[in-house]
Amino acid sequence: MNKKFIGLSVFTLATAFAYAQESDTLKVTNLKEVVVSDTKFAQSKEKSGKIIEVITAQDLEAKKGQNLANVLSQVAGVEINGNQSFNGKNLGYYIRGGRNRQVAIYIDGVPVSDASGINIEYDLRLIPVEQIEKIEVMKGASSTLYGTGAATGVINITLKKSAKKEISGNAYINMGTQNTSNTSKTSAQDFNQGLSVNGTINKVSYMTTLNSTETKGMSEAAGEDFEEDTFSRVNVLQKIGFKANDKLSFEFFGNYDRIKNTFDNSFDGIIANADDLNNNSFSEQFRIGFLPKYKYNKGEFAINAGASTIDRVLNISNSWSGTIDNYNYSGRSASIDAFNKYNFSKQVYLVLGAQYQYFDMTQKDAYTDVTREGAKFNLLDPYANFVYNSNFGFNLNAGLRLNFHSEYDTYYVLNINPSYTFKNLPLKILGSISGGYITPSLYQLYGPYGNLDLTPEENATAEFGFESQLLDKKLTINAVGFYREEENTFGFYYNSATFESYYINVDGTYNAKGVEASVRYTLSERFNIGGNYTFTQVEEQLNRLIPKHKGNVDLNYKFKRGTFGINYQYVDHRSDAYYDSNIWATQAVNLAAYQLVNSNISYELLPNRLHVFGTVTNILNDDFQELIGYNTRGRNFKLGLNFLF
């Protein structure tokens, strides 16, 4: 099917272009954009004192064929390392010079994490982008509202909601090539498919979705004599909602995610060992949640409650013994966040809340046996957030959070975020000083290198910026400069004389600073162009894999029955390191800068019924590395169908 696949892709693109000149009769109603990240309750974005990056359903539609990591990596100030690698490659999240553990991820208001992981980080590979309705990315320390982990940013994901009619749904399938810059296979080796059925019957809404991905065609590791790796993902989501009346509503959800993949043996800078198909991993997650909301005359009360279990298994071939080493991890977590918004007036309201979280884990392998009876902790965090929106342009958001932890002393963080919108100028200025903290993980406390004397890692961010809308709001420009400090950073102590090793809080203060800027020009309802630029400067101790300069430019055109988009991304050189066992030392390397050009086109074959799309990624076939020793994708093609009913 190789030549047929490429021929069909070209035919689809050509057909869509042929219709690009048709007149556009679609009328679009512009609504004020609403965000929830900086208060936990919906408010107009123009009243927010933060520059919150919002990725809408329309934005995701224009990026068809890209996964969640690809989409997030195009946001100003965000670098998702591994987004251009094989699907099985684990991801690194870098926001404002931070790392995975400093980024909090929420899905429908419920925190998601892996309690068994070293950093309790959540694996974004578990989420198919097809389930997502909207993403808000709020950068800076945000622990007053979001607790542990919200030190450099919060990624707030909203899943799709049920349609208002009794039954609705869609089915999709897409397939694409899977090439590095040195291969040119034309057969489809990346398959994605899914089905969603949803609707509303009287007071009850429902949604059932099934998504799956199967990928092969390239090796995760770069080098010779490596066989192709495989990646498989299955996702099932069930949501049930009940709207008792205009004031009271409930939502329940259940979610199952599974990933299986093969991967390559470890290497010493330059790959020395051939791939062993016995290397594989399995990850399985179950999530449930309960989200009641109640509105009353003076405010609104909500509970975001959820629980999850994650089981991970790694089977790694041991080149020394010739055997397979098995590593088994299991983590459980639960969160109940109850919060109330009380309106003192149209301009003033107060959010009071309390969040309880519980974590436990197990780890079992040939060398370690950690049980959940001995590896668990809980947190109880009361918090308050005060919001003042004046009628003369001044807004203030200020908050306080106390963190009561079962293993260390009470900790607190503050936030103050004023902003001012000029009445006679199309300009809003904003600033903030905010705190964040990261709780030591179960592994860092109770694992084989655990240390019960660990205290939270502390972060503080100061930022100042502006947002302006010009040319009758067709041109939007924003920019923010930030300075971030972290103390009590988690590190690893090793004594070569006694072979003693354990986690520690590193003395000293490290900082990161930078600028994030975005611009968007909407010429008409059909055409817009925009881009962003990020400058990040971090101290040497924090510098690994963080580009100093990064930029994105995209152009989007909407014609009568379809859309066309093209985007360009530049990523500056980065530092990396690997352990060279030949000299028993860590070697520093410099990864070269790279650039990507991607294009996407979609067309409605049957209006509101059948859509087709085609994408070409890395059009220039740039040869680069995201991480030393690992492959990245070259030029690839993808073609897809989406049927709505």
From TrEMBL:
Residue ranges constituting the TonB-dependent receptor-like beta-barrel domain according to the UniProt record: 179-619
Localization per record: Cell outer membrane
Membrane topology reported for the UniProt record: Multi-pass membrane protein
Highest taxon above the source species: Bacteria
Domain TonB-dependent receptor plug: 45-154
Annotated keywords: Cell outer membrane, Membrane, Receptor, Signal, TonB box, Transmembrane, Transmembrane beta strand, Transport
Signal peptide: 1-20
Primary location recorded for the protein, binned into one broad class: membrane
One Pfam entry name: TonB_dep_Rec_b-barrel
Family of the protein in this entry: Belongs to the TonB-dependent receptor family.
Descriptive protein name: TonB-dependent receptor plug domain-containing protein
Organism of provenance: Flavobacterium lacisediminis
